[in-house]
């Protein structure tokens, strides 16, 4: 299974600082772990999950062995990095952040959520994960939980299109 993972640019994880073996002339070395979501295992994203985990550098993974499918992630027993998705760092991350900010402004203004609209620009420096969440949260205020889910789907589709990934 092909999946994705946001890491620091040096290939270390955000939470545990685990250093993933990076690809060279071919894929990186396989990493293995027991599957116990949120405790153990190799956590990754499907395309639809990317907005929930947007970070600094995006890598494509090959997953193998048992894979647990969770609401916003997958957890595998075995994985390796196959490539870095360089488009993310070469401009897509910043364009996505701006798109989410513009969308948050639009949603907040249309709903009369002036306090939220006023805080959007200050959140831009926080990056894509924050802005994606803010836009989805405003959509939820307007249309309920379905609005949140639809906005996250919209973001995932945008990312798939701009990163050249299989549809979310």
Report on this structure.
With 168 residues, the protein is an alpha+beta fold. The chain has 2 domains: 2-84, no CATH class; 90-163, no CATH class. The chain has helices at 50-53, 86-111, 114-123, 128-143, 145-163; strands at residues 2-7, 31-32, 42-44, 57-69, 74-84. Strands 1, 2, 3, 4 and 5 form a 5-stranded antiparallel sheet that branches. A hairpin with a 4-residue loop joins β4 and β5. The protein is elongated and about 50 Å long. The chain starts with a strand and ends in a 5-residue tail after the last helix. The mean pLDDT is 95.
Observed structural traits:
5 helices, 2 domains, 168 residues, elongated, single chain, 21% strand, five-stranded antiparallel β-sheet, 5 strands, alpha+beta
Q: How are the SSEs placed, and which strands pair?
A:
Blueprint (H helix, E strand, L loop, with lengths): L1 E6 L23 E2 L9 E3 L5 H4 L3 E13 L4 E11 L1 H26 L2 H10 L4 H16 L1 H19 L5
Antiparallel strand pairs: 1-4, 2-5, 3-5, 4-5
Helix pairs in contact: 2-3, 2-4, 2-5, 4-5
> What's the helix-strand series?
EEEHEEHHHH
- The residue-averaged pLDDT reads 95
* Strand segment count: 5
Estimate the global geometry from the Cα principal axes.
Answer: elongated
The helix content is 40-55%
CA gyration radius, whole angstroms: 17 Å
Termini distance?
A: 14 Å
